[in-house]
Write a structure and sequence with these properties.
Elements lengths: L2 E3 L6 E3 L1 E3 L11 H13 L4 E3 L8 H9 L9 E6 L14 H15 L4 E6 L8 H13 L3 E7 L3 H14 L4 E7 L11 H7 L3 E5 L22 H4 L10 H17 L3 H9 L5 E6 L4 H8 L8 H12 L1
Parallel strand pairs: 3-10, 4-5, 5-6, 6-7, 7-8, 8-9, 9-10
Antiparallel strand pairs: 1-2
C-alpha cells in the first residue's frame, strides 16, 4: 500500500480507501461489512469513510463496531454532514446548529472521541460559508475533529472558503471528496487546479463509475441479476450506455495486456493525478478489497496513459 499527504497537512492516507455508501448498514450483511473492513486494514488501508446520512446513521454504527479491533491512532476516519437527518427545518444543511448536533451524534454512533476528517457533504447556499467554517473550526479546537473537508464543491466555492479562512484566521479545508473516474472527468478543468492552489486534495468517490468500469457489464441487454444496475442503485444509469460499454471493452484489453484487472486499471488511472490523495472504493466482500488495493502499487507508463486517453476521447 502507498500513502499520500492529505492536502497541505502532515497526515498520510492510503491511496486506496474504503467507503460505506451503498454497502454498509443495511445493503450487505454486517458480518460481511466487518470482515471487509478488517481485510482492508490487513492490506495496509488506513483510511475509512462513512457519513451520517448513509442508512440514516446505521453505516456509522457498523464502521464504528468494526474499527474497535484497531488501535484508534492507526486509522484515519472520516464522516460527513449536510443531508437531512430528520423532518425538521434545521435537520439538514451546514448551519452551526446542524453541524454541532450532527458531529456529536456521529461521534456517538461511531463510538469514538474524534473523527480525523469531517466533510461538508455538499455546499449549502442557505448558510454563509463563514458560519460553516467557524463551526468546523470550533470542532477542531474542541478536539472532536482533526481536519475538515468538503464534497462536490465547485472551484469557486473552494476558493471563496480559502479566502474567508485566511481573512478570519480559521482552519482551512484540506480535502474535497469528488466524483471522478474515467467516465466522469469534470473536475479536471477547474476543481483540481483550484484545489491544488489552496492545499486541498481530492478524495475520489465512485472511481469505478458505479461498477461500469469493473467490466462486468458487457451489453445493455445482459445485465447480471442482483447487480447494482439490475436494482437501479446509486445513479448507475447515466454511466450505463452502449458507448461507455464499448470503451470499457477496449480498456479491458489494455488491462489484460498489463496482467491486471479492469478495476485496477481504472483506479491506477485516477491515482496518476498528483492532486488525488485517495480513491474511495465500496467493496462489499473481502475479495473485492483485495483486488482493489493492488491498484495502489500500479504505475501506468506514458504510453499506456496515452492509449487510454485516445479511447476516452472518442
Amino acid at each position: 500500500m502507498r500513502y499520500r499527504h492529505l492536502g497541505h497537512t502532515g497526515v498520510k492516507v492510503s491511496t486506496v480507501s474504503l467507503g460505506s455508501w451503498l454497502t454498509y448498514g443495511g445493503y450487505v450483511a454486517n458480518e460481511n461489512a466487518v470482515n471487509t473492513i478488517h481485510q482492508a486494514y490487513d492490506l495496509g488501508i488506513n483510511f475509512f469513510d462513512t457519513a451520517n446520512v448513509y442508512m440514516r446513521g446505521e453505516a456509522e454504527k457498523v464502521v464504528g463496531k468494526a474499527i474497535k479491533a484497531f488501535p484508534r491512532d492507526s486509522i484515519v476516519l472520516s464522516t460527513k454532514v449536510f443531508f437531512p437527518m430528520g423532518d425538521g427545518p434545521n435537520d439538514r444543511g451546514l448551519s452551526r446548529k446542524h453541524i454541532m448536533e450532527q458531529a456529536n451524534a456521529s461521534l456517538k454512533r461511531l463510538d469514538v472521541d474524534y473523527v480525523d476528517l469531517y466533510y461538508c457533504h455538499r455546499f449549502d447556499p442557505e448558510t454563509p460559508i463563514e458560519e460553516t467554517l467557524r463551526a468546523f473550526d470550533d470542532l477542531i479546537h474542541q478536539g472532536k475533529v482533526n481536519y475538515i473537508g468538503v464534497s462536490e464543491w465547485t472551484a469557486a466555492q473552494i476558493t471563496e472558503a480559502a479566502h474567508i479562512a485566511d481573512e478570519q484566521l480559521l482552519n482551512h479545508f484540506v480535502a474535497n471528496q469528488s466524483q471522478y473516474s474515467m467516465l466522469d472527468r469534470k473536475i479536471e478543468s477547474e476543481v483540481i487546479p483550484a484545489s491544488s492552489a489552496h492545499g486541498v486534495s481530492q478524495v475520489c468517490w465512485s472511481p469505478l463509475a458505479q461498477g461500469v468500469l469493473t467490466g462486468k457489464y458487457t451489453a445493455l441487454d445482459k445485465i447480471p441479476a442482483g447487480s447494482r444496475a439490475a436494482e437501479g442503485k446509486g445513479g448507475i444509469k447515466r454511466f450505463l450506455t452502449q458507448a461507455n460499454l464499448d470503451k470499457v471493452a477496449r480498456l479491458k484489453k489494455i488491462a489484460e495486456e498489463l496482467g491486471i484487472t479492469m478495476a485496477q486499471l481504472a483506479l491506477a488511472w485516477i491515482l496518476r493525478q498528483k492532486n488525488v490523495a485517495s480513491t474511495v472504493v465500496g467493496a462489499s466482500r473481502p475479495a473485492q478489497i483485495v483486488d482493489n488495493a493492488k491498484a495502489a502499487d500500479i504505475d501506468l507508463d506514458a504510453e499506456t496513459l496515452d492509449r487510454i486517453e485516445r479511447i476516452l476521447d472518442e
